[in-house]
Amino acid sequence: MSVPLLEIRGLEAALVRPPHAPLLRGVDLTLDPGQVHGLVGESGAGKSTVGKAILGILPKAIAVTGGTIRFAGEDLLKMRPSRFFSLLGRDIALIPQDPMSALNPARRVGAQIADGLRLRRGMRGAKLREKVLSLLTEVQIADPEAVIARYPHELSGGMRQRVLIAAAFAVDPKLVIADEPTTALDVTVQKEVLRLIRRMQARHGTGVVFVTHDLGVVAQLCDQVTVLFEGRVVEQGATAAVLAQPAHAYTRALIEASPRHDRPDSGMRPIPEHIITALKAERVHGGEAADG
Amino acid sequence: MAEAPGEAIVEAKDLELELPDMNARVLFGRRPRVRVLHPVSLSVRRGEILGIVGESGSGKTSLGRALLRLHEPTGGKLTFEGRDITHLDEARLRPLRARMQFIFQDPQSSLNPRRRVAASLEAALALRAGRLDRKERRRELEVVAEQVGLPTPLLDRYPHELSGGQRQRVGIARAVITRPHFVLADEIVSGLDVSTQAQVLVLLKRLAGELGLALVFISHDLSVIRNFCDRVCVMRAGRIVESGTCGALFEAPRTDYTRTLLDAIPLPSPQPGWLDGAPDTAACRS
């Protein structure tokens, strides 16, 4: 067995201030190179917290309190800061949720895509420009020459998200964390952006951790899926298997709560109270997530 | 499916709407106007749920606001319970306001953050009931809280102390406390988790049935529309491009646009080939 690209074991996180409410309660996750792993759950499940913990960008109010995050065998949590920062933006990149706040409104988008290449790959001048243009072409932006000179507000939401995908893949990272990158987009644009992420990821052999609340997105994009509930892994496995035959009642309820446009009378079933109560009780008794 | 539909509550005939173009830079003089709605016709009957779906910028919210006469149409005719309200002035609209209500996407921003829930609901109640003494008001509030499944102690909380689902229940309570005949719900579940979404929709559907509401439900989510509405209008660029009963429209969409919208929604079970094919360059030009 080769070393997994990303191996998270027993990850715990909590609020820094008393009463130190726990946010992650022992999350395990393994990602092999070139795989897309979906993190799915309702709000408060901790899916974004896992993503941010990997990138070391947790808000100041939240701290990792236990566990390991190994990237290609090295524990990111125990690494010297200088080593960690050299990985960020080179081997590990982010596709954020809100392209408007992730892009600097006062800088042209070409310069922003170029940052990673300049800082991490030492590219300059004509070669750098060439590379930025080819990246924009790769993310299917028509007329890249014009787009590099634009400011973020001059682009549509879908275009901005493409720019961020270009910036993330610019440095040929081994791992990309995508934090709900299509939540704010229209469905037709979302589909294009998902296709693009899939294609870039396959072409570059990148491992992707994809945070989303949408089981539909998971079903189409992710090879593996982890279902989280209040900071705990409820169920984990190959996407097709988990969705077709969920082992855990919570996963089943989550699927049944989601409406589908291809079936009448689907969805609209709130997750039964007793499932939530049972999950919370498991936590109190401190056992491992007992499936079934 | 549903019982025999009642009389038309809201009817729009060739409704047109032009609004000032906020993107235009004008120093002096009038802002140029943009056409938001090309002639649009629809009707909603008592006890019926009509879905309006479209992408951002398709005009669905503007249409909703026009139906409530929050915008004055620039053409066509709008009737409410048989009465022409197309150009009615605000003074004459006011007595009708209690019977036409709305629920917004984010009750956090539509509820006054410095007022307790009870105060916000009382303000709406005053639209219908005028002056009531404190006991009577409280009783009315408790009845409506019960109707929407909001625990009564929460009436004395501030909006920020409630969860998203609870706030949306307050939004619904605020709308139904005036005993409306027509309710417009604009993207009311888009920020909610699927389970909370299901709770809110089940509640609204039950209330709409019990109160015999004519309900217009605006959403970008065709999956929700199919399972919640009786009929649906698909909007694009200020026009209704297709409409019909949910059963017919979803089983056999007649326009390419509706098909494109349907194909773009990922289903929660793998659809082989859904992500195949080159991303479309044309879709991102703007």
From TrEMBL, chain A:
Q: Which family does it belong to?
A: Belongs to the ABC transporter superfamily.
- Name the lineage: Bacteria, Pseudomonadati, Pseudomonadota, Alphaproteobacteria, Hyphomicrobiales
Q: Which PROSITE patterns match?
A: ABC_TRANSPORTER_1, ABC_TRANSPORTER_2
Q: GO molecular function of the protein, one example?
A: ATP binding
Where is the protein found, in the record's own terms?
Cell inner membrane
Q: How does it sit in the membrane?
A: Peripheral membrane protein
- GO annotations under biological process? peptide transport
Instruction: Please state what the protein is called.
Output: ABC transporter ATP-binding protein
Q: Which SUPFAM superfamilies match?
A: P-loop containing nucleoside triphosphate hydrolases
Pfam families from the UniProt entry: ABC_tran, oligo_HPY
Q: Which residues form the ABC transporter domain?
A: 6-255
Q: Does this entry carry the keyword ATP-binding?
A: yes
> Which cellular component, as a GO term, is one annotated location?
plasma membrane
Record-linked CDD domains:
ABC_NikE_OppD_transporters
Sorted alphabetically, which SMART domains does this protein's record hold?
Answer: AAA
Q: Which UniProt keywords apply?
A: ATP-binding, Cell inner membrane, Cell membrane, Membrane, Nucleotide-binding, Translocase, Transport
Automatic annotation (TrEMBL), chain B:
A biological process from GO: transmembrane transport
Q: Which Pfam families is this protein grouped with?
A: ABC_tran
Q: What species is given as this protein's source?
A: Pararhizobium mangrovi
A GO term, aspect molecular function = ATP hydrolysis activity
> Where would I find the ABC transporter domain in this sequence?
17-262
Query: Which UniProt key words apply to this protein?
Result: ATP-binding, Nucleotide-binding, Transport
Name the record gives this protein: ABC transporter ATP-binding protein
- The reply to whether Glycosyltransferase figures as a keyword in the UniProt entry is no
Task: Write out the similarity annotation.
Answer: Belongs to the ABC transporter superfamily.
Is Glycosyltransferase included in the keywords of this UniProt record?
Answer: no
